[in-house]
Amino acid sequence: MGNMKPILGIIGGGQLGSMLCHAAKKLDIYTIILTDDPDAPAQNFCNDFICTNYSNKSEVEKFAHSCNFITFEFENIPFEILQEISNIKQVRPDPKINKIVQNRFSEKNFINSLGISTTEFAFIKTKNDIEKNKELLPGILKTCLLGYDGKGQSVINTMEDIKKELPLSGDFILEKFVNLKQEISVIITRFQNGECSIYEPIENIHKEQILRSSTIPANISKELFNQAHNIAKIISEKLQYIGTMCVEYFIDYNNKLYVNEIAPRVHNSGHLTINAFNVSQFENHIRAVCNLDNIPLQKKSNAQMINIIGADIANYRKKKLKNEEFFFDYMKKEIKSKRKMGHITTLISKQ
Ligand code: AMP
Known about the structure:
The chain is α+β, with helices and mostly antiparallel strands. 26% of the residues lie in helices and 29% in strands.
């Protein structure tokens, strides 16, 4: 390749990959994106772009041999592929972690095994299983695998809702519906020497199960702040996690904290760290994966991030930005109605 920079391979080419590439540039690290999507936006930000079917063994192996370090930007890569790559070059975070959190059932069992609360849930394969777990209604039926942004989810209020057949097919969990007061997330980066760098909790608002806004500071008590931090530390420690991960939480009207899910990667709610902190979640991820120094975090400003979804992107592309506004266009080829097309972060003074 004719360059002496460290080479970081990133599997997946969406906006998270783009922002990782951007952060890598600042650290003088060369990036190669591996994706199966010819339109992947990260091709605009990486140094090298490999587009191939993940089942193309020789291309995938070539990619693994070309890199010094390898990570991924979305968690739904087939485990076997990650395992195959990690036989050639270590993948961080460890693909075994992916296997646990990729499946909602094993993810929740893992969290509960640490003595940490999740919503109540049951494994569901048939309509009869729902009948047996009626006490979880009203609830949300979620596919165990491959669901995100509300995809693969269906609200079930009463048994009447599933008279004939289950609305979806495969393995599911049925989750009891929590009356949500707030939702927060904690972004944490764990380094190879076991040190952690942890951002303050971020308050998130979802609409139709898609993240709309993320704000710091979260409007929560010191107690919940500390609880959320402690849980994120315990989880990352237990997983021996390397890199940036996100723990998403629900808070109910009794101020009880539940872990909703773990994202073994940089996360949408952490985009505001790019402008509000000295080191972003993306830079921290790369620092951890490539074994660079852990720089103490400093908050520069409070902030709010708004996701720009679907056709709304056209308005932002024309918008005249104020000094405290930072607009990110993911440069996606096609506008789709529920697609995250960009985001805008507004810095808010600390007073
Ligand atoms: P998920 O894909 O499981 O993270 O769900 C996306 C969003 O749907 C969450 O951030 C919540 O706003 C909402 N949601 C999911 N599960 C529940 C639940 N058990 N109770 C209440 N709201 C939920």
